[in-house]
Input
Amino acid sequence: MARQGDHRAAVATLHQALRRTPGNLKVLYAAVQAILRQLDELGWEAPLGDQAGTLIDRIRRLDAGSAALEALLTQYSGTQRKYGISTTA
Output
């Protein structure tokens, strides 16, 4: 769906998959990537941005040393900067 440009449908489908398999790393990574693509292309939505952060935290607990996690963090920070969202708390 995301490849066809329907980012919202891709995110919704992955949310459903996460409800069924909340600890599945492949689904977690795919969900965050889909959310970040939607935010990057369609604009920042605070609830969705917060959800991406929450999912990234879940990945960090499950797969802390992953290079893929570092790539997601970089992408997340870049998207925040793009829309002027503060990355410091």
